[in-house]
Amino acid sequence: MxxxxxxxxxxxxxxxxxxxxxxREIAASHKAIGAYEVLDRLxxxxxxxxxxxVYRAIEALVSAGIVHRFESRxxxxxxxxxxxxxxxxxACEACGRVAEADADAVxxxxxxxxxxxxxxxxxxxxxxxxxxASCGGEEREPAxxx
Length: 146
What we know:
There is one protein chain. The protein has 5 helices and 5 strands. By secondary structure, it is α+β, with helices and mostly antiparallel strands. It has 2 domains: 2-78, Winged helix-like DNA-binding domain superfamily/Winged helix DNA-binding domain (Arc Repressor Mutant, subunit A, Orthogonal Bundle); 86-134, 2-Layer Sandwich (Dna Ligase, domain 1), CATH 3.30.1490.190. Strands 4-3-5 form a 3-stranded mixed beta sheet, with no helix packed on it. A hairpin with a 4-residue loop joins β1 and β2.
């Protein structure tokens, strides 16, 4: 929560009680969760909110770089790596867990390609699906393109 407070201060925003509650619910899951799942979890705790309130809180958390959007699933997860505009997201198809990975080489390649095309990217999310180590991901040979 301290990192969230610092991020909000740097952006000139307030970490309101609602934003804190939404952040806690997203952080409590090791999976990417949708806004309506956050809303349901808050309702079970006795906080009855309008969906728009949760969406606005999530938007603020994303804007501050504390939460990332898992684009293909329209779900959200807490940023542990401190990346604000670029993420390499690893998603397990078996258990649903998500993680961020160091992706300097990936984004260097993206920068090179976009630069040659005369394109100036503002952000990038690279999503990789497969199996995490707990679900047997280490047992499989990596695919090699040829």
